[in-house]
Specification:
The complex is a heterodimer of chains A (about 575) and B (about 220).
Chain A (H helix, E strand, L loop, with lengths): L1 H4 L8 H4 L2 H4 L9 H11 L3 E9 L5 E8 L4 E8 L18 E7 L4 H10 L12 E9 L1 H12 L6 H7 L1 E9 L23 H25 L9 H4 L3 E6 L3 H7 L1 H19 L6 H19 L8 H20 L8 H12 L2 H14 L1 H4 L22 H11 L1 H4 L11 E6 L5 E5 L14 H13 L6 H7 L4 H12 L16 H12 L2 E5 L5 E5 L29
Parallel strand pairs in A: 6-7
Antiparallel strand pairs in A: 1-2, 2-3, 3-4, 4-5, 5-6, 7-11, 8-9, 10-11
Chain B lengths: L2 E2 H14 L4 H16 L4 H11 L5 H4 L2 E3 L2 E3 L7 H10 L10 E6 L6 H11 L3 E4 L3 E5 L4 E5 L8 E6 L15 E2 L3 H12 L2 E2 L3 H6 L11
Parallel strand pairs in B: 3-4
Antiparallel strand pairs in B: 1-9, 2-3, 4-8, 5-6, 5-8, 6-7
Helix pairs in contact in B: 1-2, 1-7, 2-3, 3-7, 5-6
The chains are: A alpha+beta (about 575), B alpha+beta (about 220).
C-alpha cells in the first residue's frame, strides 16, 4: 500500500473524463462487475449445480441452477418457450421470448415454481415477490442456434468462424433488478458481501443463464439425434457468451443516479492514477503488458460492427494497438515513471478508443492496487439526496460555472441545442427519444436535460437577491431538481455527464456503452444511435473451471489461437 | 399482493409529477412516500389524498408563507411536501426556536420523513403534534402515538425543536408495502399523464430499433 500513498499523479479531471465521446469509448476493466463477481465466486469456492432440467423436444420446459456461496444460495429459474419466429423482437414492447428467467433468493420449492411459472413468462405483466431478486428474458440468435444444434446432432462441432461471428446463442433483452415488478429491493440484500458491489445479482443471473443456454443447446441436439449427438468441445464452449440487446432505457439510468456514476468512474480513475504514479516498472510487468496488448488486438480483430461511426473507430483501435505494440517493443522497463510516460505518449498518439483500452490493460498490471477500489463502487444514494438549504447562492452559482461551464456558453435559442426530447411511451413504458420541434411532446419530457436546466437555474439566480438556497427554492421550486444535482456534483465531480444530452448530435449509445463497460461487456455493436448489442461472459470460465489459474483473466481472448480439432 | 419500496418510490415520483409538481418536489414526494411505507405508515394513501386535493394547483397556493412562528398557505391548505421540503431546507436554523405552527396542513403524516431528516441534519430531535398524533423524530428513529388516518381534513401541526422528551418503542421498519389498491390506482392515474400516447411514427423511430429482429 505504501507505494501509492506517495501518489503523485492526480486522477484525470472530470472535464476530460465525463465527455460523451470518451464515455462512449469505455472498455471493460478488472473493476467491472462481471469480473468482481467471478473473482468472488472463485475466492469463496462457490458451487453451481443444475438442480432441475425438464425440457421437451420442442424446447419447452423448466430448468433450475443453484449457486451456493458461503452464506446464501441463489437459484436461476429458467422457463424455455417455443417462440414463433415472427414474435421474436428485442424491443421492450415485445410480449413473448424464447426463454424467461428469475433469480430466486434461496432454493425454490414446488409451490414457488408453480407461482413463478404463472408469472415469469409474462415478464412485466406478471408479479414477483420479495423472494425473487431479478427478472430477465432472452431470445435466440437464430443465425447460430440452428447451426449449433444441427452440427452437434450430427456429431460434429460447429464452425468456429460462425461462432466468432455471432459469439452467443441467446441474447438477453432485459435484466431487471432492484425491486422491479415486485421483486426484492436492493436494500434487502446489499448487506450481504456478495451483493455489496453494484449489479452483482444481475451479473449472477446472466452468468447462470449462460450455463443454462449451453446446456440447452446440447440438450436440443441430443433430443434431435440421441445416437449421434455430441457436446460442445470445452475450448469452443467457452467462446460462447450471452448476448445482450440494450436500448434507451439504460441511458437515463446514468443521469438519474449521479452519485453512483461518480463512484464507478472515481474508482476507475483512481486506479489509473495509482498506476501512473508508480515510479518504477519491471521487465515482468512490461512483458505482461505486451501480452495484454496482443490479446486486446485479438479482441479488436474479432469485433464486428457495421455501424457507420463505430466501425471506423474499431479500425482505429486496431491501428492503435498495432502502434502500441511496436512502441512497447522498444520501451525500456528501467525508465523513471514508466506508466505515466506511456500514458502521456498514448494521449498524444492514440485515439480515444485506444487510450481507454490502454487504461483497461494498465489496470491488469497491478491487481493489488486496483481491486480494493471495487469496494468503493456502491453508494447509498439517500446520503446525497437532501439539499443543503443553507448554502449561499454565490456558492451555488460558482458550482454551476464550474460543472456546467459549457452549458452556460450554449445558445439555447438554437434549435440544435435542444433538438431532442426524452420521454416515455404509454406502450409498455418504453423510454424513447423524440425530435422536440417535430412532435408535440413537451408535456411528457423527462428531467434528463441537465445542461439546459443548469443554464436556466443560472439565469434564475441572476434575478434573485443574495441569500441562501432555501430562500431561492421557496420562490423557484422548479429548480429544486437541478439544485440537488449541482450540489451532488460539487462534491462528487464525476457525477455529471459534461455534455448536452438534448443536442441534435448527441448519441445515446455513448451512455449505454459506458454502463455496459462497467458491467464488463465486450464487442459493442451499435445497431443505431440508440441501441446496441454486446457480448457478456465470452471466454469466461464455467463454474467448474473457476478454480483454474486463468479464472480472473478471461475478458481478453487467449494469447494464442486455440482452434478445436 | 405486496410491493417493493422501489416500486412505491418510482410510482410516487411519477404521480407527483403527473399531478403538476416540479420534478424536484416529485422526488421529495417519492422519498417521503417510501419512507412512510418503510415505517409501516400509509404513505401511498397520504400521497394519493394530497395529490387528489391539490391536482395541478399553483405553487403560490401550496407553499408556506412564513411569518414569525407560523407557516400558512395562501390557498385552502398547506402542501406537506412543500412545507416538509422547506423545513429540511432550513434545518440549520431551527434548533432552539420557539414552537412553529403549520396552519392547516394536508396529510400531516407526510411531514414525518422531513422532520426526521431535519432532525438528522440539525442534530436535534423534533417534536410534531397534531390533534391526531404526536411524534418525536430523531435522525434515526421515529416514536409515534395516535391514529394515522390519511383522509382527515387539513390540520394544524406544531413543531418543537428539540422535542419534549417522549418515550416509547421506535416504529419498526419493513421492506414491503401493502397499500390500499384504490390509493394505488389514484397514483397510477396521475403517473399515466407522463406517458406519451403511442403513434406509429413514435413506435418506429423513438427507440431507434428499426427491424432489430431482422438481423438476429
Amino acid at each position: 500500500m505504501s507505494e501509492f500513498c506517495d501518489q503523485q499523479i492526480a486522477p484525470r479531471p472530470p472535464d476530460v473524463v465525463m465527455r460523451l465521446e470518451r464515455l462512449g469509448a469505455a472498455h471493460a476493466t478488472r473493476l467491472s462487475f462481471m469480473r468482481q463477481l467471478l473473482r468472488r465466486m472463485r475466492a469463496e469456492n462457490w458451487s453451481v449445480s443444475c438442480t432441475g432440467f425438464d425440457i421437451d423436444a420442442r424446447g419447452v420446459g423448466t430448468a433450475t441452477y443453484t449457486g451456493r456461496g458461503p452464506d446464501h444460495a441463489y437459484t436461476l429459474v429458467a422457463f424455455a418457450h417455443d417462440l414463433p419466429p415472427e414474435q421474436r423482437t428485442d424491443r421492450v414492447i415485445a410480449t413473448a421470448w424464447d426463454a424467461t428467467f428469475t433469480l430466486f433468493d434461496g432454493v425454490p420449492d414446488a409451490d414457488d415454481l408453480t407461482r413463478l411459472r404463472a408469472n415469469v413468462p409474462g415478464q412485466e405483466a406478471g408479479r414477483l415477490s420479495g423472494r425473487e431478486l431479478t427478472l430477465a428474458r432472452a431470445n435466440r440468435s437464430t443465425r447460430l442456434w440452428d447451426h449449433v444444434v444441427d452440427a452437434l446432432a450430427r456429431g460434429q462441432q460447429p464452425d468456429p468462424g460462425r461462432v466468432a461471428e455471432v459469439g452467443y446463442l441467446m441474447r438477453t433483452t432485459a435484466v431487471y433488478g432492484s425491486g422491479k415488478f415486485g421483486a426484492a429491493d436492493r436494500m434487502l440484500t446489499c448487506a450481504r458481501p456478495e451483493c455489496a458491489a453494484p449489479f452483482q445479482l444481475e451479473m449472477l443471473t446472466v452468468y447462470l443463464i449462460r450455463c443454462f443456454v449451453l446446456d440447452l443447446v446440447e440438450h436440443m441436439a441430443r433430443m434431435q439425434a440421441p445416437r449421434t449427438a455430441v457436446p460442445l468441445a470445452p475450448t469452443l464452449r467457452r467462446r460462447f457468451g450471452i448476448g445482450n440487446s440494450t436500448g434507451l432505457g439504460m441511458a437515463p439510468f446514468l443521469v438519474n443516479h449521479p452519485a453512483l456514476l461518480h463512484r464507478w468512474i472515481a474508482a476507475r480513475e483512481q486506479a489509473l492514477a495509482r498506476i501512473r504514479s508508480q515510479p518504477q516498472g519491471s521487465e515482468d510487468r512490461l512483458q505482461t503488458l505486451r501480452t495484454l496488448v496482443h490479446r486486446a488486438a485479438r479482441l479488436a480483430a474479432d469485433w464486428r460492427t457495421g455501424h457507420p461511426l463505430q466501425a471506423p473507430r474499431v479500425v482505429g483501435l486496431r491501428a492503435d494497438l498495432s502502434l502500441l505494440e511496436s512502441h512497447l517493443s522498444g520501451l525500456s522497463p528501467h525508465i523513471r515513471d514508466p506508466w505515466n510516460t506511456l500514458w502521456l505518449w498514448a494521449e498524444d498518439h492514440l485515439s480515444v478508443e485506444g487510450q481507454e483500452q490502454l487504461l483497461a490493460l494498465l489496470l491488469e498490471l497491478y491487481p493489488d492496487f486496483v481491486d480494493d477500489l471495487a469496494g468503493d463502487m456502491a453508494v447509498d444514494e439517500r446520503d446525497s439526496f437532501t439539499i443543503d438549504g443553507a448554502m449561499p447562492l454565490h456558492d451555488l452559482r460558482a458550482i454551476l460555472q464550474d460543472v456546467y461551464a459549457a452549458a452556460l456558453d450554449t445558445d439555447w435559442d438554437a434549435c440544435a441545442a435542444q433538438a431532442r426530447i426524452w420521454y416515455v411511451s404509454e406502450a409498455k413504458l418504453e423510454p424513447r427519444l423524440g425530435e422536440r420541434f417535430e412532435e408535440d411532446l413537451d408535456r411528457y419530457e423527462q428531467p434528463l436535460d441537465t445542461h439546459r436546466a443548469a443554464a436556466a437555474l443560472h439565469a434564475a439566480l441572476d434575478g434573485h437577491p443574495p441569500g441562501t438556497v432555501a430562500d431561492f427554492l421557496l420562490r423557484h421550486p422548479d429548480h429544486r431538481h437541478t439544485v440537488r444535482r449541482a450540489q451532488i456534483a460539487a462534491h462528487l465531480p464525476y457525477s455529471e455527464i459534461r455534455d448536452n444530452t438534448l443536442a441534435a448530435d448527441m448519441r445515446p449509445i455513448d451512455m449505454l456503452r459506458l454502463k455496459l463497460s462497467f458491467f464488463g461487456a465486450a464487442h459493442f455493436d451499435p445497431r443505431s444511435d440508440r441501441w446496441v448489442r454486446i457480448n457478456m461472459y465470452q471466454n469466461a470460465p464455467f463454474p467448474g473451471e473457476l478454480q483454474t489459474d486463468l479464472a480472473d483473466d478471461w475478458t481478453l481472448p487467449p494469447a494464442l489461437p486455440r482452434i478445436p480439432a | 399482493m405486496t410491493h417493493s419500496l422501489n416500486e412505491i418510490s418510482a410510482l410516487a415520483r411519477k404521480a407527483a409529477r403527473g399531478a403538476g409538481m416540479p420534478w424536484g418536489l416529485a422526488e421529495e414526494s417519492a422519498e417521503a412516500t417510501r419512507w412512510l411505507c418503510a415505517h409501516r405508515l400509509p404513505g401511498v394513501e397520504c400521497l394519493a389524498s394530497v395529490l387528489h386535493d391539490q391536482d395541478r394547483a399553483a405553487w403560490e397556493a401550496l407553499c408556506p408563507v412564513m411569518a414569525r412562528g407560523v407557516w400558512s398557505s395562501r390557498g385552502t391548505a398547506l402542501c406537506p411536501i412543500a412545507a416538509g421540503a422547506s423545513l429540511s431546507d432550513r434545518a440549520a436554523g431551527l434548533a432552539g426556536l420557539a414552537p412553529l405552527t403549520l396552519r392547516s396542513c394536508r396529510a400531516p403524516l407526510m411531514l414525518l420523513p422531513f422532520a426526521c431528516e431535519t432532525a438528522r441534519l440539525s442534530g436535534h430531535s423534533i417534536g410534531l403534534t397534531t390533534q391526531q398524533f404526536a411524534a418525536v423524530c430523531t435522525g434515526n428513529a421515529l416514536v409515534l402515538d395516535g391514529t394515522f388516518s390519511p383522509d382527515r381534513p387539513p390540520a394544524d401541526v406544531t413543531l418543537t425543536c428539540p422535542a419534549a422528551s417522549r418515550t416509547g418503542p421506535p416504529v419498526p421498519l419493513t421492506d414491503r408495502a401493502a397499500p390500499d389498491p384504490a390509493a394505488l390506482d389514484v397514483l397510477t392515474g396521475f403517473a399515466a399523464r407522463l406517458y406519451a400516447p403511442e403513434t406509429e411514427a413514435r413506435r418506429r423511430d423513438g427507440a431507434g430499433a428499426s427491424g432489430p429482429g431482422a438481423l438476429s
